[in-house]
Amino acid sequence: MTTKIDQRSAMSSESTIHRGTRVTVHERVTRYACYVLFLLVLLYTVNFIDRQIMSILAEDIKTDLKLDDSQLGFLYGTAFAIFYALFGIPLGRLADTWHRGRLIAIGLATWSCMTVLSGLSTTYAQLAAARVGVGVGEASASPAAFSMLGGYFPASRRALAAAIYSSGLYLGMGLSLPIGGHVSKAWNEAYSKGTAPYGFHGWQVAFMAVGLPGLLLAIWIWTLKDPPRLSGAPNAWHQFAMDLASVLPPFTLWSSSLYPGGLRVNILTLLTVGGICGGLAFMTGDKAQWIAYGVGLYSLLTWMRNLRFADPPTHQLIWGTRGVCLAVVGFGCLAIVTYAFGFWAAPFAIRTYGVPAASVGSSLGIPGAIAAAIGVIVGGRLSDFWKQRDPRGRIFVGMLSAALSAPAMLAMFLASDFRHYAALSPIVYFCANLWAGSAVATYQDFVLPRMYGTAGATYLIGSTMIGLALGPYASGKVAAVTSSLQLGVFSLLVAPVVAILVLWQVGRVAGEIERTKWARAQAVGEP
Description:
The chain has helices spanning 4-12, 31-52, 54-65, 69-95, 100-120, 124-138, 141-152, 158-190, 202-211, 213-221, 236-245, 251-257, 262-284, 287-310, 312-317, 322-353, 357-389, 393-413, 418-432, 436-446, 452-482, 485-490, 494-515, 517-523, and strands spanning 16-18, 21-23.
């Protein structure tokens, strides 16, 4: 049961920030908090190696499975992202009420096994199903991790902690390229065509090589202690089942029927989303893309409506707040640039400059990993510093990332040779990743401590449903239609412009959202 002392403690751990003035308590960061952060960085590195390795293997997969660029974009983006975002919702809510370390460990074991199964795939459908499984497993990691960090670190250090954790993403992104390229090359050179054990290709072995170590890391993660929090829930798994039913068709129909007018609204939502995505599937010919996206969008809208009745304070502070909804769109547009660039940079170099995959992996991966990690940490530190002086500080960091990444990316993909292309790559990685820690901390600033897991899931909704599910696919589709991957990448440069315009609107209301969050939550039933 929540006590008055618990409530005062949780409230006092927040920073009271006004323009030009800051009062902060509980600034001390413990050694165990740093240990947890280190282990979570390692977790996220493994997470993104398993996810990103497909970039360097894309050309071999395309050849062996006879795919086009839009199908590659679907495998990397949509097949993974939709289920990553959807399962991130109930798993994020579970992270608010159950043991977060164990939840992360179970998810890690799941996605590691599915990465191994990706290596055993021999058809487009099998690989797509395995990628879905990877998305489901990885959905447990970040909401629970962000929730743990929110519990271990004070408000004035949260963006930096989130940024350091997010650096694991970029370390994994960079390491996946040389690891995947060298493993695949070594296997293919060791065995001539038709002589490899079980007929495995190099790209299949690369998937298996990065998937198996995750099982050992899962055992280590299991030992983490949970930080104290405002309250827990004795019926955590019952609530998880209800949340899962709200995002998993056809149980969405049943879950919606539990609330006033829910079934009627749900059916109308299904018909509307189905009609729009069906039309897009007909126009583009990409049925898998738009069926998957339609399922994801319909399920997301169902969960948002159900949350309004199941947890009114959480709904009010997230989906009932216009500024938060705009933040989801703004940061999602930044994710379009991050994910599209992260996926297509290696295939573009291989096709355009004729450089072997292993060389591309080494030239782009390691420098890119270092630059991206530095970028996200610098962005996080700048976010904390700027926020102390202006309530819009975190938002300004996102806008800065958009303003710098677009011209850098344009210059890189116009480079005349691979040497210049590789030299510009770290600059793009640095600029395109300044925003991540700031985004996570922004969502946490806007909600109560007990909602950090759901806030993490909200961050993932924007970055995956907008950034990952649409960015790689859209650029791949333009490339397939125009036969120019360069045009495909350039078509997405409208996203940073949209991000700046939307985030400016968020900045105008950020201070008020944070100042009034407790009062608005209590007005709809928060104790």
